[in-house]
Amino acid sequence: MRAMVFRAPGQPLEAIEMPVPAPGPGQLLLEVKACGVCRTDLHLLDGEVAIAAPPRVLGHQIVGEVVGEGRRVGVPWLGWTCGECDYCRSGRENLCPRALFTGCDIDGGFAEHAVADARYCFPIPPGYPDEQAAPLLCAGLIGHRALRMCGDAARIGFYGFGAAAHILVQVAVAEGREVFAFTRAGDAEGQAFARQLGAAWAGASGESPPEVLDAAVIFAPVGDLVPAALAAVAPGGTVVCGGIHMSDIPTFPYELLWGERTLRSVANLTRRDGEELLELAPRVPVETEVTTYPLGAANEALADLRAGRFVGAAVVVPGAG
Ligand SMILES: [Zn+2]
Ligand SMILES: [Zn+2]
Fold first, then answer.
1. Environment of ion ligand 2 (residues, CB < 5 A)
2. Most buried among 4, 5, 6, 213, using CB within 10 Å?
3. Ligand nearest the Cα atom of residue 244
């Protein structure tokens, strides 16, 4: 089969031919129909998040068809957990120290086939075409977990309006919240896209929102946004860092945290997060905006993500050539 593999940080993915993987006990063999591209893939490419044993097929938002069965399943970032540690036994498998992650520790979906542990796969809601469903599997799931960390906040800021925010703005608005979208300065297209999806306000990340916020989620991997978001939330508010990696956070006066503000991160996902979001998405209904790329163009998809050349999410479609 054809696959795009990571060999070392700083190098583009390499197109190779490799054997179709053989499913082990409890694993499903999938024909990959679509696989979403995530900012985490850029952190892996850049060596900001380490891949222990390259070469590795990246891609952790897989919509696949089970070979021989025809049913569709989704494969997320969380690929395996030990089931025995304190975290696993207390509903926090996202923090399992032995967890294995798809497209990082396990070969992922930038390939024609993949294998996945059936216990970590989700059924795909029937109304979603393959490429529309793919961004739900990381951007959607981890964004959903981040949004839940905001509690019942009525006014929420999203810093960085990419794949995750474009899904979660729809969920938040359906829940009756107001969303304030912060983009890179001068990104008029991104700001218009946020307003079109229901954001009450959209502006540059350096701007003050028109109202004080109850919570904020930082999706962009930019540490400078942490003090900016803390300054924008009211006493008692929460700032959630939604990414796996962020540039260093500058020092800031304690006054920004004072007033019982909470600053926290969100790490990975639990299977329960996935079940919740995939049940919720068709009821909102969440519609995803995707730009598709054939398998051989995975590096272009990653470059376009880095440069902010599309709105919504990028999805690799192996069957497209
Ligand atoms: Zn564990
Ligand atoms: Zn991801």
1. 38, 40, 138
2. 4
3. 2
CB 74 within 8 A of CB 281: no
Q: Give 259 Cα–ligand 2 centroid separation in angstroms.
A: 33
Ligand nearest to the CA of 42: 2
Average confidence score pLDDT of the chain: 97
Domains of the chain: 2-138+269-320 (3.90.180.10), 140-265 (3.40.50.720)
Give the β-pairing of 122-123 and 290-294. Answer: unpaired
3-state secondary structure of 37: coil
How many whole angstroms separate alpha carbon 290 and alpha carbon 297? 15
Ligand 1 centroid to Cα of residue 152, in Å, is 30
Give me ligand 2 centre to Cα 38, in Å: 5
pTM of the complete model beyond 0.85: yes
- Backbone φ and ψ for 34, nearest 5 degrees, come out as -160, 150
Residue 132: is its pLDDT beyond 80?
yes
Mean pLDDT of 5-15: 98
